[in-house]
Amino acid sequence: MTLPLAGPRWCLAPEEIAAVDRAAIDAGLSGLALMESAGRGVAEAVLERWPDTGRAVVLVGGGNNGGDGLVVARYLDLAGWEVELVLFVDPGSLSGDAAVQWRLVEPLGLPTRRVEEKAEAAGAIAAAAGATCVVDALLGTGLKGEVREPMRSAIEALGGIEVPVVAIDAPSGLDGATGVVLGVAPFAELTVTFGFPKPGLFLAEGPERVGRLRVVPLGYPAAALEAAGERPLGWVGIEEAAAALPPRRHDVHKGSAGRLLIVAGSGRFPGAAALAAQAALRSGTGLCVVATPEPAAAAVLEVAPEAIVRALPATEKGAFAEKAAGPIGGLAAEADAVAVGPGLTTGGGVRRAVNAALAADAPAVVDADGLNVLADDPGPIGRESATILTPHPGELARWLDRDPGEIDADRVAAAREAASRWAAVVVLKGSPTVVADPGGDAALNLAGNPGLATGGSGDVLTGLLASLLAQGVEPRLAARAAVLLHGVAADWARADRGERGLVPSDLFSYLPLTIREVSAGRGPALLARIDHRHAGLLAVGGTGR
Question: Is the pTM value of this prediction over 0.85?
């Protein structure tokens, strides 16, 4: 059984993990010991996945990745498996630790095939048909440039033999930093990565190629972690969500459980306000006041009768009229937190309404049309109270004057830039959602699924996040906890109901239950019960050194 992941909750890019490796070696942990731990961890993961004796074909490239593969071959042979090697490197040219591993493997007499030319690659892969698994030890996470022949043809051929692929560190050809496929990369059933997961395993094409992810700890000495730099990328853990849900006193009442103002909705989009209100109420806010244009008020009350709905003057098109700003400013002054934006549209007096809400001395969430009306003039977010911005890539592209494709190409950098520029916590929605704060910290949300790709999911997140703020949760923690709770509730709903037909209102059956389980310390058990693909990672402890 592989040891649990120890150390900080970090995603380290290839150059960062290489620096930690060097520091660990300098501290006395040999490279050979690191390779042995890595390869043994992969073999243990294979034996756990396929407990019966099987047949493994190990594709061996040069460098440390190939050396790791040779360790895997040795341990699987020791476990009684039938092991075959397909070498894409002259073993005589191996150097360093990989050469040592070849000297240990060669005497075993394992069936070995050498591939030197493109024309030989497809046949070598075809011969793996019927194997229990193919172990991809061709290329590491630090690949520069596109995959070259004959490895390219071999990887392409893997798609045609219907044999599960176990990737070492990352599927060969997947950029460990960005998740971009460098020409070609296999679709692994299982990826076993070392020390810390790499960002590319969660970004861009990564989630499609990685399959199940296992992280093997390498026993880095604590001092070596300093080489990772000042602010490594992290991911949101279940403990952060639990920290945002402290026990309530026995004498809590609606006035002490948080008063939230939601400024949302229009005649065209009344459902946005209703979804945000329901999410806020289902996540524990004591009083939820919804300021909405008069044509939307009845629809909000129909689905959220517990909300206090304030129907305000509207234009002929159903947006806020100019004179709605005064009442909104008064309501915001009484609130513990404010949420602005879902379904507002951008016409009429919407800008004045948004400005009035943000003038209050209370933490605020700005979403959807709130972001759209402020895109050309974001001045109102230069406020003393905390602001949380929740854009999708298209909205953030307007704020940063970029193409949306550029935002998605480096989601982490874009979120960090926006957080720094506007001194706000930024929740960049998508897969994965990135939470960045003005100090430079950033974390990925590993919960959630494509079932959330439905209109209204963001409104639910806005209501949940604003509810936590109204209950007094610190903004950075509220943002991280909200995205995780939202995602886990969706993952639970998917486990019960399926993904394709999931709608935002389904979350209201799971959000209170998710909060119950997480707040009671049963979050890890819940993740295991719904067979969450990142259950082990989400249960890891803190992000600090």
Answer: yes
